[in-house]
Amino acid sequence: MQTQKRLGILTSGGDCPGLNAVIRAVVSHATLTYDWQVYGIPYATQGLLERQMIPLHMHSFDLRGIDPLLSMGGTILGTINKGDTLNCIDQILASYQALDLDALIGIGGDGSIAILNQLALQGNWQFIAIPKTIDNDVALTERAIGFDTAVNTITEALNRLTFTAASHDRVMVVEVMGREAGHLALHSGIAGGADVILIPEIPYSIQKVCRHLAELRDRWHRRFAIILVAEGIHPGEEDGINLFNQKIACGKGQYIADCIASCSSYPVDIRVSVLGHIQRGGIPSALDRLMAAALGKAAVDLIAKGQSSQMAAWQNGTVSAVPIEQVCALSPLVVEPDSDLVQTARSLGIYVGELKNTL
C-alpha cells in the first residue's frame, strides 16, 4: 500500500492579504483530492530550522462551521522577512529531512522564492512556489497574491483624502510602499484619481510638479491636488539634490511636501499621509481570493505530477507553471517608463515624472 504523502507549506517575507486563502486552498485540494497529510511550517525557514510543523486539515480553524481563512488577512503560519538563512543551509537541510516531508510549497516574493529554491536544489526537495507581494514585482506572473487588495486599500484612502483636500483647498501627499518597483503607486494612483504619481523607475522634477499644480489652479481652477509618492523615488540629475546622495531625516512623502512648499510661487496648504503597513492589512479582495484558490490548487497538482522548482503563475486569467530559475533571473519586475499604463496616466493629465532628456 502506498504511504500517504506528507506536504509542507510555509509563508515567507512580508505578510499580505490572501495568504490564508492560499493555505486553505492547498489544504483543501491536497486532503480531499489526494488524501495527503499537510503540515504548516511556522515562520518560514526559521520554523524549518527549529523543526516545527503544525498538522493542517480542512476544519482546523472552523468556528461553528464557518471557515475564516478565506477572508482573514495576514498568515496563520506567521512569517519573517529577515535573518541569515543562507548561513544555516546545512542545518535547515538536516531539519527538513528530520521532518520527513515529501514536498514543500512556499508562498513568497521573489527573494523568498529564490532562497527556498536554492535550499530545495541543494537538498533535493520537491518544491513549488506561489508568488505573493503587494509590490507585484515577481516576474512571469501578471499578478501576485496581495497586490489587488493593496491597490484597493490605497484607492480607498485616496478617495477619502480627496474629499478633505477639496474641502480645505489642500495638496495631499500620500506615501506608499515601493522601494524598487512602482506598480502599486501607478495602479492605485490612476484608480484613485491622483494628479501626480511619482515612482522609482521614472525620475521627476520638483519644478515641473509645481508647474503642474499651478496649471491645475490657474487654468482649471482646481485649488486642491493629490500626489502619490512611492517610497523609492528619486529626482532627475538636473533637478537639484539627489535623494540617494543625501541623508533625509523624514520620509519621501514629507520631503516632496517640503520641496513643493519651498519652490511654489504661491502659498500651498499641504499635508502628508504615510499609509505604511495599512497597505498590507485587511480582508483580501475577491480577485486575490480567486487567485489564491487557483494558484493553491495548481501548486498541489504540480506536486502530484512530480514537478519541482516551478512557480504557479497567473497569466492571461489562468494559471501556468514557469521555471523558478527564469523567475529569479527576471525579478524584480519594474515598471517600464514607456509602458501602456504610464502612457494612460499621462493621457489623463497625470504628471508621472520625466521622459529622458526632458528635464
- Most strands sheet: 7 strands, mixed
Shape: elongated
Separate helix tally? 11
Spans of at least 5 consecutive residues whose pLDDT stays below 50 are 241-246
What proportion strand?
15-25%
Number of strands: 11
> How would you spell out the order of helices and strands?
EHEHEHEHEHEHEHEHEHEEHH
Side by side, the strands of the main sheet go 3-2-1-4-5-10-11
> Mean pLDDT across all residues, rounded?
93
Structural class: alpha/beta
Description:
The protein is an alpha/beta fold. The protein has helices spanning 19-32, 44-49, 89-99, 110-123, 147-168, 183-191, 206-218, 252-263, 286-304, 324-330, 340-347; strands at residues 6-11, 37-40, 54-56, 103-108, 127-131, 171-176, 196-198, 225-230, 270-274, 310-315, 318-323. The strands form two sheets. It has a seven-stranded mixed sheet with strand order 3-2-1-4-5-10-11, with helices on both faces. The protein has a four-stranded parallel sheet with strand order 7-8-6-9, with helices on both faces. Helix 1 links the parallel strand 1 and strand 2. Helix 1 runs parallel beside helix 9, helix 5 crosses helix 6 (183-191) and helix 7 crosses helix 8 (252-263). The longest helix is centred in the middle third of the chain and has 22 residues, at 147-168. It is elongated and about 75 Å long. It starts with 5 loop residues before the first strand and ends in a 12-residue tail after the last helix. Residues 241-246 have low confidence and may be disordered.
